[in-house]
């Protein structure tokens, strides 16, 4: 069984504002108005936070999710509006058509992602998307590097941080309680 996790990088909002906008329980870590949120509801898939945080804070958010270390997905919201998203590999190919995935799922688009975030190198993001990684967590880390972002969120979600079975190395984590 592979890794399952989600997290959100928030751009242009102070850590205190992000803490006020996220739902407990969560872990929040920030530096230089780039704040990463690991919310329990998001990690469970029960309460996606990306669009909600983007709208509440009037900022840009990048949500990344990994399913069983194989499926990698991302979405970018700007002031509450979805502007870019993608999944690697195509879920219809991964799960099969019988699971009801619509054949028009947007493929990962490096140029659209870079434009939506206003940062990164399109060729480097394309290389991260096209490389034949063994684990989706590796693709997540390579994408973060290509976007000029810290790699501390790669491989991490709320449950991994709560259990303490991973070594977190990044800005101090703040735990937001119920």
Proportion in β-strands: 25-35%
Low-confidence stretches: none
Describe the sheet with the most strands. 7 strands, antiparallel
The ordered string of helix (H) and strand (E) elements is EHEEHHEEEHHHHHE
What is the average of the pLDDT values? 90
Shape: globular
Q: Structural class of the helix and strand makeup?
A: alpha+beta
| Number of strand elements | 7
How would you characterize this protein structure?
By secondary structure, the chain is an alpha+beta fold. It has eight helices and seven strands; from the N terminus they run βαββααβββαααααβ. Strands 6-5-4-1-3-2-7 form a seven-stranded antiparallel β-sheet, with helices on both faces. Helix 5 packs across helix 6 and helix 6 runs antiparallel to helix 7. It is globular, with a radius of gyration of 15 Å. The two termini are 30 Å apart.
Tell me briefly what this model is.
The protein has 178 residues and is α+β, with helices and mostly antiparallel strands. The protein is built from eight helices and seven strands.
List the helices and strands and how they pair.
Layout: E1 5-11, H1 15-21, E2 26-31, E3 34-39, H2 40-44, H3 50-57, E4 60-67, E5 71-78, E6 81-88, H4 91-95, H5 110-117, H6 122-130, H7 136-146, H8 158-163, E7 174-176
Antiparallel strand pairs: 1-3, 1-4, 2-3, 2-7, 4-5, 5-6
Helix pairs in contact: 5-6, 6-7
């Amino acid at each position: 069984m592979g890794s399952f996790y989600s997290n959100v990088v928030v751009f242009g909002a102070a850590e205190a504002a992000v803490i006020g906008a996220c739902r407990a329980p969560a872990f929040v870590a920030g530096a230089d108005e780039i704040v990463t949120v690991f919310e329990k509801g998001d990690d469970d898939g029960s309460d996606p936070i990306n669009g909600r945080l983007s709208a509440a804070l009037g900022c840009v958010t990048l949500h990344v999710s990994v399913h069983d270390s194989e499926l990698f997905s991302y979405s970018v919201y700007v002031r509450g509006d979805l502007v870019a998203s993608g999944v690697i590999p195509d879920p219809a190919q991964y799960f099969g058509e019988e699971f009801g995935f619509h054949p028009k799922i947007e493929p990962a688009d490096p140029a659209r992602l870079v434009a939506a975030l206003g940062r990164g190198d399109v060729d480097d993001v394309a290389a991260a998307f096209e490389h034949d990684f063994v684990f989706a967590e590796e693709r997540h880390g390579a994408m973060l590097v290509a976007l000029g972002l810290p790699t501390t969120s790669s491989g991490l979600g709320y449950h991994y941080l709560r259990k303490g079975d991973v070594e977190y190395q990044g800005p101090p984590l703040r735990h937001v309680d119920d």
